[in-house]
Amino acid sequence: VQLQASGGGLGQPGGSLRLSCAASGLSLKTTNIGWFRQAPGKERERVSCFSSDDGSKYYSDSVKGRFTISRDDAKNTLELQMSSLTPEDTAIYYCNAQRGILQYWGQGTQVTVSS
User: If you average pLDDT over residues 39-62, what whole number do you get?
Assistant: First the structure.
């Protein structure tokens, strides 16, 4: 199983970035998937998740209304559209897949929000 995240980079406050996570070795359609992030000196936190059971979506309070998670079943990718960026969104973003007791992580992609 491999998760390859891309799309990070430098964003301006108030701007937008889009992250993508390409999966191989498992179908995201039948897997609980999501995005986590880790800022310098802080613990990794869950940002947004997509349940394969009922299709429900979770957003942390800090990103609710600004970020949108989506899944492209044809491409087997997970997306995160980030809008209204703030410097507090600066972190390494990781895609995550969980199937039963197994958990998989992508390599992380850096997002920096600065003017």
Answer: 94
Q: CA–CA separation, 70 vs 26, rounded Å? A: 17
Burial pattern 10-49, b for ≥16 Cβ within 10 A else e, equals ebeeeeebebbbbbeebebeebbbbbbbeeeeeeeeebbb
Residue 69: Cβ-neighbour burial (10 angstroms; 0-12, 13-18, 19+): buried
Rounded CA-CA distance 36/19 in Å is: 12
Question: What is the pLDDT at residue 53?
Answer: 83
Question: Which token pair is 34?
Answer: 């999501």
Helix (H) or strand (E) holding 45: strand 45-50
Round the average pLDDT of the chain to a whole number and report it: 95
- For the record, the structure tokens of 10 come out as 């430098």
